[in-house]
From TrEMBL:
Sorted UniProt keywords: Antibiotic resistance, ATP-binding, Cell membrane, Membrane, Nucleotide-binding, Translocase, Transport
Ranges of residues in domain ABC transporter: 4-229
Coiled-coil stretches noted in the UniProt entry, renumbered to this chain: none
Transmembrane residue ranges: none
Entry keyword Transport: yes
Name used for this protein in its record: ABC-2 type transport system ATP-binding protein
Family annotation (InterPro entries): AAA+_ATPase (IPR003593), ABC_transporter-like_ATP-bd (IPR003439), ABC_transporter-like_CS (IPR017871), ABC_transporter_ATP-binding (IPR050763), P-loop_NTPase (IPR027417)
Native species: Actinoplanes campanulatus
Amino acid sequence: MATIEVRDLARAYGPVQAVDGISFSVGDGEIFALLGPNGAGKTTTVEILEGYRTRDTGAVSVLGMDPATGGSAYRARIGVVLQSAGFEEEFTVRELVRLQTRLYPRGHDPDELITLVGLAGKSRSRVKHLSGGQRRRLDLALGLAGAPELLFLDEPTTGFDPAARHHAWQLITGLRELGTTILLTTHYLEEAQRLADRVAVMRDGRLIAVGAPEQLRAGSDLPTVIGFDLPPGVPVADLPLLSAAPSVTHRRIRVESRDPQSDTWRLTGWARDHGLDLPDLMVAPPTLEEVYLALTEEAAR
Ligand SMILES: Nc1ncnc2c1ncn2[C@@H]1O[C@H](COP(=O)(O)OP(=O)(O)OP(=O)(O)O)[C@@H](O)[C@H]1O
């Protein structure tokens, strides 16, 4: 059975239809990312699933329960990492994590958890002395305190430096390996591409695409970019005919290919026949970010 089942979910605030009849499911152990521009309805959807907001219509089942009526038994099974949780600034990291783990019947060991999120060196530091990125790690530790079966992660790496972001991604991937199901919201498309088994793109309260990042990238009609350096002494006019005209910047060739397989074939065959190299050859399919932008712009039109 799916961990999350949503059917025809709707919620309005007065005249604003924030969520407009969406359906999706999230499998056991899956990382599912909910994407969409500001105001798309993501927070409303997630808060309904967390049991913190009511729905107008539709059916919702999470871990086999209805979040609207699950009460504390439901909340003991989920973890929530919000964007900006307020902390008790005078507590140390260890004190705060220990307090939180004690709230749950099967809470994590506090020291293991602190190590897991990479705060072992800051265990005895007061919260007021933590950097922004370290606070987000603390947020994550607190969300994991109850060893949840399902974790809601709201923009987990906002404000992280690149190394901290990579560490967080490893951590999140590790949680999946432990069997935790994760519902992620993020505005970082690279994060969704790295982490999510499937993504759903939301706009104006509706889902406009659902699928694995690779599926959405492969299924889009955006071009794949083929790039290489023009071999010395070869004029552009000598290149074989490709699905799109090449552009040249400082002898770097760029082809926005509609047929990357045939174009790559033609190019590499041509280079072999002429005994040439194609220096720094690169074949780049559209990124999830490019696909996302095309989808949301299309929906806006
Ligand atoms: N409590 C509220 N009262 C009235 N309108 C609300 C309320 N909460 C959200 N809305 C409206 O509902 C719509 C969806 O908001 P929501 O916060 O769910 O979007 P979001 O996708 O999470 O956006 P963001 O990426 O900016 O966090 C928006 O038009 C918003 O203004």
